[in-house]
Amino acid sequence: MITGKNWIGNQLLGSSSKIFYSSNPKENANLEPAFYQVTTEELEIAVKKAEQAFDSFNGISPLRKASFFSAIKGQLLQNQREILEWYCLESGLSYSRAQSELNRTILQIDQFTELVKENFWREASIDNTDQSVIPQKPDVRKMNIAIGPVVVFGASNFPLAYSTIGGDTISALAAGCPVIVKSHPLHPATGELVANAIIQAAILTSMPDGVFSNLNGLDFSVGEFLVKHPKVKAVAFTGSFEGGMALYKIATNRPEPIPIFAEMGSINPIIICNENIEHYTNDWTTLIADSVANGAGQFCTKPGLIFIIDGKGVVTFIENLKQKIINKNAECMLSEKIYKNYIARKNTHQAKIEIEGIIDFSKGNFASPNVGLTNAVDFLNDDFLIEEVFGPYTLIVRCRHEKELVSCLNKLKGSLTGTVFADLKACQNLKYWLNIMEKKVGRLLLNAVPTGVTVCPSMHHGGPFPATTDSRFTSVGIDGIKRFIRPCTYQNIPDFLLPEELQNKNPLKILRRINGNWTFAEIIS
Amino acid sequence: MITGKNWIGNQLLGSSSKIFYSSNPKENANLEPAFYQVTTEELEIAVKKAEQAFDSFNGISPLRKASFFSAIKGQLLQNQREILEWYCLESGLSYSRAQSELNRTILQIDQFTELVKENFWREASIDNTDQSVIPQKPDVRKMNIAIGPVVVFGASNFPLAYSTIGGDTISALAAGCPVIVKSHPLHPATGELVANAIIQAAILTSMPDGVFSNLNGLDFSVGEFLVKHPKVKAVAFTGSFEGGMALYKIATNRPEPIPIFAEMGSINPIIICNENIEHYTNDWTTLIADSVANGAGQFCTKPGLIFIIDGKGVVTFIENLKQKIINKNAECMLSEKIYKNYIARKNTHQAKIEIEGIIDFSKGNFASPNVGLTNAVDFLNDDFLIEEVFGPYTLIVRCRHEKELVSCLNKLKGSLTGTVFADLKACQNLKYWLNIMEKKVGRLLLNAVPTGVTVCPSMHHGGPFPATTDSRFTSVGIDGIKRFIRPCTYQNIPDFLLPEELQNKNPLKILRRINGNWTFAEIIS
After folding, report:
1. What distance in Å separates the CA atoms of residue A187 and residue A153, rounded to the nearest whole number?
2. Which ipTM value was assigned to this complex?
């Protein structure tokens, strides 16, 4: 049963008179029940509980943390039917998409469970005392520790993998940070069901009350309160540029600035190298059209700009790509507002350049894929054309020669991904294009599309601004934990008072850097 | 010969009519020659050269980078006599201090030379393609790359180890980032001599013009210009809270925010546990008095607050500590302004609490060590008493019981270090005090003093705000490189187009994470 209330630690509270509803975007119809926006008093309790929980949660053993994560997974699987049904109702996305996103979310939990057991994230480092040098070198040991309570903002386009128990939450919990989720108002019911699973798991495995809270809010003031709160020590956000930057300004301008990681959308440029293009046209256009149109183009990695230099076979390639994109079916977008934004931005393009595709008449927010075509000169003269259009749309930019392409690439801002398609043998400048692209992006692809992010340790999901507010961190993969940890050095502290990770005998059997060398060995004292 | 000009890459320029002089703080007398403040045109060239140098410097081999570093070391040693003489003239610090700081600076260069050769900082990670799963797992590889041109602000109190070729510069260069140093106006001649060494080394080893620049400036506008410049991608600063925060605001509020690491001073609390204190009084007070007074207390790790709970032997301990501190000799401070600030802040304490020590009459900025004494109630009621007094001063806070001590500790802001002195066997609450302290600091010490930072991989020199603007990073030790790198993922890119670090055969023989496991092995394809 969905209560519409807020999980304030292990307590369900909802005393506000301010209520709101989520909506089925296929019908623009409100869904019952109502959700109670969290009150200032409830917010204050949530933060206080998180701070209190930090003391004990931060200190629990790797195995206990792993058992908490396994219990979350168990609860999710046990309740998956209801979760997936609400996911589809609130998001308008398909059941198969919901199922695959749940699988990905479970995979993420599994990977962080392994990480917590393996404990490499501590980056334990030991420099032994050296009495032979003057001044005598002290015993110095270092490892990463949790930064404190973390606030997570769920994403509209990934109700599971980037929301309540998405990559942000699980990486903060893995670090030992209590988490307060600001649930996304487009899927509060899905959020509550997932939060139920986390709270049940926390109770089953005796985690401290306050290790997790799930708060409903329609107003910006809720997020603002959380990010401003002195007891909150870090923030993770996935969403729009405007939303991310508003929170970034708050986090960095508070009396005690705190780290914030905001992932804010991305244009994801593609370069098509035209050597032997006729041999690849069918394969490449199929890949790219799918990547642009699938899921109504509502992915942060959707390619939004495609550059190509004129040459033999290029007109055919462009025509082929355009047809494949516009022949895709309309799909329901996540909300009426997102749908209207898509139409508005597409119309702005249409006033400037040639666009093909079906014109949409609002019918439950179903959007048809469209494709724009322009040339480098017009592209370089219009700052609007380098901005993301969130939805099933991409813009093809024809360049007359390499110099024009270089100018276009230099104009681009940071992106999560950048892609090159090329005939490996025939393309002369491939290394050059890859190098230019590398400076602009967090992930470089060759002859593959950026959508469908593989969750693995080598995946970096981040990128130079404005893709994210800090290109040094990722929100996908186990390295996501680095956002929520800080190193601490222990000097001249006897073995029995050290954390287990740093004790001589290496009781947790972890990989450590000892006097500069990485080893699993223990120290013979 | 000191020219007073700016190294704009490999070119010495100084066309400004705005000049300034450094001063000998022992005599408050200006030193020749004059220094030319960098002009806007010169600043623009320096940034442009840095951006151009980035393309090639970022791509040079580990061995070439290491040879550049060795050449810097060689040039420093070759010119050490002149460097050390100017160091002493401009800083008022002793020749032996200058010598030991040079040794430390050389040690830092050596450690980064090793790091560059070893290449672990790349954190190379490979997840091979897996064709057995659906959807097929692509080949995904990741490593850290340089973030772009970096601006470094030298510190007044470490003309070598935290200035022109200090830890910030060498770690940014190690990452592959060109560096623009804003030379500290208290030691511009030392700065120019060190810059000469770097430029000569860069020319000797054929580094690109613009890999390093050294700029003189008395006005805040110089730093402001650099931190605001769109081509600058990160900033490192060591200095005052006011200076650090002014730059932090600029870096985070520019249209494209950039990472900034500002280390801004620290109160470095000490707790003295009183069990069996009479057995330790002499040893502990000797250590602490040295740590407070040496080098005129001008260290960011100088202990500024000492807490002790009343009990047997405590009065004697306090008396002993006070005497040892005030019996230390006066030493010359770094500048007249720093000296006057010390006197002013000490006088503010004196208006509130009991202070002992010689009253200074300005005589070439020589400052005598002083010590204040207050109780927990007064301490808790006065917000000024938790602020750092930069100089040879510390404040002892007597508490009546544990509860008072806990209140005092909770009031503290973040620090670089926190120290506990205790009888390991007799002290009952030792773990408790260490845990409270750990939350506030970046380095925890037991029965040792925080001054005299050991430069080794396990050293963390950073801490929760306001000690630094980002507790996740260090400015000492090889992990300082993490401030200036960002991960980049390479997906589906054939071996011959990958960076060597990620190629199957592991030609650089580095430690890599392959399918989740750290290994030196190559990949058999």
Report:
1. 12
2. 0.97
